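Hi W.,

Here's what went into the run:
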Amino acid sequence: MEQKKETLLEIHNLSVSFRMYDHGLKQQDLQVISDLYLTVHPGEIVAVAGSSGSGKSLLASAILGILPGNATVRGHLHYQGQELTPERQKALRGKEIALVPQSVAYLDPLMKVGAQADGHERPRPTKKRRQLFQRFGLPEETARRYPFQLSGGMARRVLVSTALLTEAKLVIADEPTPGMGLAQALEALRMFREMADEGRAVILITHDIDLAFEFADRVAVFYGGTTVETAPASDFKEGPSALRHPYSKALWSALPQNGFHPIPGFQPYAGSLPRGCLFAPRCPDKTPQCMTDVPPVREVRGGEVRCYYGS
Amino acid sequence: MALEAQGLSFRYHKNQPWIIKDCNLNIQKGQRLAVFAPSGHGKTTLAMLLAGYLEPTKGQILLDGKPLPETGVCPVQLILQHPEKAVNPRWRLRRVLEESGRLSEELLYAFGIEGAWLDRFPRELSGGELQRFCVARALMSGADYLICDEITTMLDVITQAQIWHVVLEEVRKRDMGLIAVTHNHHLAERIATETLTLPTDFSGTLPPLHP
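Here's what came out:
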């Protein structure tokens, strides 16, 4: 790993919990992210893949400091070597750190999308916005439409343009491609690649993992609110034999082009996590140790894996 | 048994361009069709027309030779792209599911819907978790035709494969007709028996104003 390289974002031991009402007035803390790690260097696209509900979007919110009030964040969260405090998050978000939100419902329904993409900056970046819309195949009149007048894929392209228009050093793109056709999705990813090549960085949260493998430098795989593997993207292109964690292998094999084989079982629910390895209940290679002890993160072949047996 | 579109055309207003023009379709029960088209070319509109969410401007939708019923559970069920827009945000998920009939334990298990999720509100679940409810709700209604508008693009690939295996099994068991809108050709090869590519001569036009 390029450990000595300057890091833009460094996260380890991150945990997020929500205070929720259980019965009546009784409250309980629900831990949804635990012991999560992720490092991002300038010039890099880090793809975040993993189970639905594994905390990928929550991580984005935690970095930006936009979690709801009943959330508690603990752990090491550093941006450019300094701790990300709530004040700092507030100062950085939308400027140095930009988000492409997951839901197209993040667009203001009462505002034309062109003005939304331009943002609060003055003078307006209208010229740049036009170029971006053009590259995305959005006709200029799109700018004068309201969100409800756009198809899902068009709204998504507007959201991506919005983030690309900022001068952000770090863009967190939360599922930027669903609803887009293949050509548009590739164009969006190409733009992220260009951004990264300029020395900025992108966290690409995605389920279109086959596309992500082509454009990302590294892939982090999340499961049950924790990181189970980080690996060079090339290992994911190669296939299961190059991967370290059984869950990463299972993801690869579930792709329609690679067999469409789902492993049985479900990701554990945040309130009832297993005692040992979070993946153990579904793991084909588990041993008694996996059921009782949480495996530590180990460095294996230029990647990291949270498994006793990953090699 | 067939779901038919005859000379189906749709536009939101007479000053607006056609989104769907003279579309003819015939899906028999037991058939599985994948629909392709670039974004903004009427896939979702076609899905909404077929399920009775929109009225055709011209032409008609026929189910076994008759128009879609106006009351009761529609035998053509649509599952939307964004589950968070398809459920009442103020209802607990048990109520969301019960809207379509008695809870089927078997389906809940097959979809991995845990008991505890039923007492939560939609905003307390991830998009992927929520979509399982929407698919289960459509299947529990006993529909004859299922229209799936990009239903698994928001899900991880393991969940995607799990959900499609359940859907395909139910569709085969009940001899249902299936129309799946998708951008993923690899997925289409797995789920469909035939494909339809919507005409792309609308390029440059926008989905126009809602009424």
